[in-house]
Model the fold of this input.
Amino acid sequence: MRVLLTGGSGFVGQYVLSRLISTKLEILATSSPLNDQERIVAGNLRWLQCDLSEPPSYSRSIIEFEPDVVIHLAWQGIPNYSAEISGLNLRNSASFLNLVATETACTQLVIAGSCMEYQRDWVSREIDAFPRIGEKGSFLAWAKNSLRDYCFLLGAEKGMNVAWLRIFYVYGSGQRAGALIPTLISAATSGTGFELKNPENQNDFVYVKDVAEAIVLATMAESSINGIYDVGSGNLTAIRDICSFVEHEITGKTSNKSLMSKKGIGPGGSVNIEPIVADLKGIKKELDWEPEWKLEDGIRETINLHLTTHQSS
Done:
């Protein structure tokens, strides 16, 4: 089986790739930009350096590769969720997937969605509600929801199954420095601290290795799967509790004072958000997947890898 993976050198993509190369699958992974530090080398892996905003940079290679399954993870600009960047990602993804649907014999798409698809400040209103002037919506949610609808329409027309995986608050080693847990680790190890808004906000945190396993299971399923599946832990954890755990693991203390302030700015957002927890019934039934990593164990491994990396550099 031939698998095409976009975003192969990204945070989640590297973990997915590490799992895929242990199989007998033939893999083509895209990345932009690509450098030697990001490159994973394996006999069943080829890299394609390309820009999804420029179809000529990838069209011929993908058509010639003739993928059976496409895993689409690439999403540029994170954490810029502006209208401009969200729209750009939507257009790039739609153009790329249209090529796959019309020019290859691909039968299965595995697409990274987001729990932000659920997130609308006006969600409690009627189904056809829209944001009023002054209300804050999410262009990322709009882009992901629009891409999801496009994928299922395209799949129905072209005979492709779509596994749309709504990924919740993924964390782990290799995540961008400005994300919550890497920021907490840096603050605790340096002793500088940082200011955090809304420490009582709760999120569903899921370890990146569990996310990668869900993606690989969807890719290698004996029978094609078609549907929308949440990928999370199924549990809510307050940001304050994450702060306390990270601080205690690194310093042996749990004061919280050095790591956050209710009036500060930083990870956690500027408004209180209605918590959303992943519903795992669908993915458990279809793929027999459930997270193996407890939150404490995942954070502990993330801390250890961070310390090991910085000690060797």
